[in-house]
Specification:
The protein has 8 helices and 9 strands. The protein is α/β, with parallel strands linked by helices. It has one domain: Dihydrofolate Reductase, subunit A. The protein has a 9-stranded mixed β-sheet with strand order 5-4-3-2-6-1-7-9-8, with helices on both faces. It binds NADP nicotinamide-adenine-dinucleotide phosphate. NADP nicotinamide-adenine-dinucleotide phosphate is lined by residues 38-40, 46-47, 50-52, 55, 76-80, 83-84, 113-116, 118, 140, 164-165, 185-190, 193, 218, 220.
Length: 253
């Protein structure tokens, strides 16, 4: 008997976030839990014309907004902030109310990983951040000192590493500041660093029903990176969009 089986459609879900909200994301030792949330085409492409917009379907866009309600901090590589003109995280009022009722900050902070510090400090990602959720800039000690000073005016700066941001150190610095659930929204370069360091606990991958996007996979493995293995936990569907949820682990036997 093979292990293959048909997946039958299950019941409709009123709140798309519910299956994701049920996941226990506490780490026993106070480390961060890292959830990566990405969308790819059927060919694995992570962008179309350098942007993610045309790749995302309406159900994916809805889940993208909602997933942020689960996070203490939304972590992104600087190129995604530049390409996607990132703003601060905004949540629907009912999600804000639920977080506040649970004693959590109203919204998660945004954290940007960069070595170059080539960011527009007057942009929404920094200028619109509320005082209780200032945007974080995670950089390394090789960063240009003048730019570092500018960054400190606009954001809370974390230095985590020498020549480059060390992913493990960056997460330890976030945990020290009380951030536990980290939602990484890419991009592929920064996600590849987290994957290579074995730090991605959960991958929420949307498969959008198209091919022919940019030759950019959802995660770019740095040279020599080991394989990272994941176990399938949930499969959800909305129209032609497939939502796969994996956790770090080995394949079922
Ligand atoms: N499909 C999806 O779900 C999805 C999600 C996000 C983005 N995207 C797409 O992906 C593209 C952007 O992704 P990307 O892979 O080019 O860039 P990225 O991962 O967003 O950002 C790369 C940048 O992050 C910084 N960085 C990464 N690792 C670092 C380290 N260890 N130390 C210091 N800095 C580090 C560097 O910033 P500096 O250059 O400032 O030093 C680097 O240039 C866009 O087309 C976007 O639309 C797709």
């Amino acid at each position: 008997m093979s292990g293959m089986r048909m997946l039958e459609p299950g019941p409709r879900i009123a709140d798309p976030l519910e299956p994701y909200a049920q996941v226990k994301r506490a780490q026993p030792d106070g480390r961060c839990w890292v959830t990566a949330h990405m969308v790819g085409g059927l060919d694995g492409s992570a962008a179309i014309g350098g942007r993610v917009g045309d790749l995302s379907t309406p159900p994916d866009a809805e889940l993208f907004r909602l997933m942020r309600a689960l996070a203490d901090v939304v972590l992104v590589g600087a190129e995604t902030v530049r390409a996607e003109h990132y703003g601060v995280v905004r949540l629907p009022p009912e999600r804000v109310a639920a977080r506040v009722a649970a004693g959590r900050p109203a919204t998660p902070s945004l954290a940007v990983v960069t070595r170059s510090l080539e960011l527009d400090w007057s942009a929404r990602a920094f200028a619109d951040a509320p005082p209780e959720a200032r945007t974080l800039v995670i950089t390394c000690s090789a960063a240009n000192p003048e730019r570092l000073e500018q960054a400190r005016q606009a954001a809370d700066v974390i230095v985590a590493g020498g020549d480059r941001v060390d992913p493990d150190l960056a997460l330890r610095r976030l945990a020290e500041r009380g951030y536990r659930v980290v939602l990484c929204e890419g991009g592929p370069t920064w996600l590849g660093e987290l994957v290579a360091a074995g730090l991605v606990d959960e991958l929420c991958l949307t498969l959008a029903p198209l091919m022919g996007g940019d030759p950019l996979p959802v995660s770019l493995a740095p040279p020599g990176a080991p394989l990272a293995r994941f176990a399938l936990r949930d499969v959800l569907q909305a129209d032609d969009t497939l939502f796969l949820r994996y956790e770090r682990g080995t394949h079922a036997p």
